[in-house]
Every structure is written in structure tokens, then in C-alpha cells.
Amino acid sequence: MANPAVLDTIKKKMKQQREELEGVRDECEEFKRQVKDENKRREKAEAEVAALNRRIQLLEEDLERAEERLKTASEKLEEASKAADESERARKATESRSGMDDDRVELLEVQLQDAKVVAEESQARYEEVSHASVVKAPPAPRQVLGEIPGGGGLSRTALGFPRWPRVFVVSRAARALYSRRGR
Asked: Which DSSP state fits 27?
């Protein structure tokens, strides 16, 4: 039979081998658990990366749409700005024309007032002259008509009609406008 000392040595060796095997099994289980945990973390990280990539893609699409809307809005703003500039020019032109029309209305009003005054004065002079001519002997109609354009006798100014009534009215109106503008 075999020697008990060899047997004891083999038993000790087997026991030692079993203990080492248990240690290696425990280490192997720990490594398997660590690998499993790492795989879960990797899968989770990959899922997060995929979600972030999808989010980036959606944000890029949103950015493209926003840029298109910005471009459209910018074009509309430019068109509106041009329309506003044209409206402003038209408004200024209209104001200018209105101002000129106002000045012309004022001038015409002054001319009208002057014409009324001249007409009233002429009417008064005409009545005086006609009253005086009725008191004297009335001349023949051809004789009065003949004397007005000529030189002697009754003249246009003697009857109360100024030679240049338009010049008088226009110059008076011009003076009135000139004084209103403060020049």
C-alpha cells in the first residue's frame, strides 16, 4: 500500500488545489459580474449617445426651419421697409404739395380780398362818376367810349379803373406772403 505520508501530502495538495479552485471561481464570478456591469453601463451609455444624437438631429432640423423662417421674415421686413420708405417719400411729397397749395390758397385769398376792395372802390368811383355825369350833361355813348382809350377827357384812371390792377393785387399778395414767412 501506499505510504500514509504520501497520502497525507496528496490530501493536503488536493485540499490546497480545491481552495485555490474556490478562490479562482470566486474571482471568475467577480470578473463576470464586473463584465456584466460594464456591459450594462456601456449599453446605457450607447443608448444615451443614440438619444443625444437623435436630439442633435432634431435640433439641427429645428435650426434649419428657424433659419428658413428668419430668412423669410428678413425678406418680408426688407419689403416692408421699402414700402415704408416709399410711403414716407409719398407723405413728404404730399405734405410739400399741401404746403404749396396752402400758400397758393393764402395768396388767392389775399388776391380775392384785394380784388373785392378794388371792386368796391371801383364801384364807388363809378357811382360817383356816373352821378357826376348825370348831373352834368351826359355825353353821347360813342364819345365816352372814344375818350377812354385815348388821352384827353375821361380816361380809364379818371373813371376809377387803375391801369394795372393785377400788378397791384399780385404785389400786395406777395408782400403779405413775404411778411408771413418772416423774411
From this structure: H
Are 170 and 111 in contact, with CB atoms under 8 Å apart?
yes
* CA–CA dist 77, 62 (Å, integer): 22
Look up residue 7 and give its amino acid. L
Count how many residues are written for the chain: 183
Model-level pTM greater than 0.70? no
Per-residue pLDDT of the chain (183 residues; tens, 9 = 90+): 568 888 899 999 999 999 999 999 999 999 999 999 999 999 999 999 999 999 999 999 999 999 999 999 999 999 999 999 999 999 999 888 888 888 888 888 989 999 899 888 888 888 887 776 655 544 544 444 444 444 444 444 555 555 545 445 556 666 666 666 654
CA distance 107 to 176: 8
**Residue ranges of E strands in 6-153:** none
- The C-alpha atoms of residue 111 and residue 168 are separated, in whole angstroms, by 10
